[in-house]
Design a protein that fits this description.
Elements lengths: L7 E5 L4 H12 L3 E6 L2 H5 L7 E5 L7 H13 L4 E4 L14 H29 L2 E5 L12 H21 L5 E7 L5 H7 L2 H10 L8 H12 L10 E4 L11 H10 L4
Parallel strand pairs: 1-2, 1-4, 2-3, 4-5, 5-6, 6-7
This protein binds 1,4-dihydronicotinamide adenine dinucleotide (NAI).
The site of 1,4-dihydronicotinamide adenine dinucleotide has 28 residues, from helix 1 and helix 6.
């Protein structure tokens, strides 16, 4: 079943991790994909064809949002799907965040999402298209040492809900995915330490990091007509991390040890 047969789709930050998996999945399901990334070398390694084009661009650069929309229109004569995936985690702690740091993390995580969507919007209105924003569970719940990132991703969720309400009557759907810890180059350094891996297991009911392909599966659903009545939603794809105050086996054992008679 080719759910995106012939549909033009833009995916930002598509040369690696989650964006790459989404771009490949949409293409596999028939989309004509424009894969955008700042890393021209990594982009060039993607399988290219008339229906899978690459565009090297920094989404935060002046003029980039319009250039991205124009590039998609030039090749595919429309925009039906926009996936705003560009984002950067691992910001400095709040008290060490300089003005330049603030700008850097706010620009890529939040401003670029706003600007690229705005540039693509006339074409999306025409096609009655869909927008999918890749937020984060850190935009939904509090977390330590991620102030600007959390703030920016919460802003992305706010934009998602606002646009969904504002443009539903014009046939546009806007949703977000909040990934938990996903094994990508962005998290590789941490996941490779036994201590960090153990905390994932200890705080996530499913006991493992997610795979980029598992985000891509949810993304394909939300961008497809199968989600035709879904808008303004934030789907956590996080192994259950934010759905519960998860009690690890070690903590359960503490309870058992403390109440030997029960
Ligand atoms: P990644 O590090 O695997 O890939 C990021 C890609 O973004 C790279 O190809 C890089 O070249 C590109 N990029 C960086 N700056 C750019 C710019 N200014 N313009 C265009 N492209 C740029 O990252 P990952 O993990 O796949 O993350 C993708 C999205 O998912 C981000 O928005 C991130 O915040 C979000 N996310 C990731 C989580 C994870 O655990 N990996 C968890 C929650 C959210």
């Amino acid at each position: 079943m080719k759910r995106f047969a012939g549909r033009p789709a833009i995916v930002t930050a598509a040369a690696s991790g989650i964006g790459r998996a989404i771009a490949l999945r949409l293409h596999e399901e028939g989309a004509r994909v424009l894969a955008v990334d700042i890393n021209a070398g990594a982009l060039a390694e993607l399988p290219q064809s008339d229906n899978f084009r690459i565009f090297a661009m920094d989404v935060t650069a002046a003029g980039a949002p319009q250039a991205i929309a124009d590039e998609c229109l030039r090749h595919y004569d429309g925009i039906r799907v926009l996936v705003n995936n560009a984002g950067l985690g691992n910001c400095p702690p709040f008290h060490e965040t300089s003005d330049a740091d603030y700008q850097k993390w706010a620009d890529i995580n939040q401003k670029a999402t706003f600007m690229v969507t705005r540039a693509a919007f006339p074409a999306l209105l025409k096609s009655k298209g869909v927008v999918l924003n890749i937020a984060s569970t850190l935009g939904v719940v509090g977390y330590r040492r991620q102030a600007v990132y959390s703030m920016a991703k919460a802003g992305v969720i706010g934009l998602t809900r606002n646009l969904a309400a504002d443009y539903a009557d014009q046939g546009i759907r806007v949703n977000a995915i909040a990934p938990g810890i996903i094994a990508t180059p962005q998290t590789e350094g941490r996941l490779n330490t036994a201590r960090f891996y153990a905390t994932i297991v200890g705080t996530t009911p499913m006991g493992r990091p997610g795979k980029p392909e598992e985000i891509a599966g949810a993304a394909a659903f939300l961008c497809s007509d199968d989600a035709g009545y879904v808008t303004g939603q934030v789907l956590a794809v996080d192994g259950g991390q934010t759905s519960s105050a998860y009690i690890s086996d070690a903590l359960v054992q503490c309870w058992v040890d403390a109440h030997p008679d029960q």
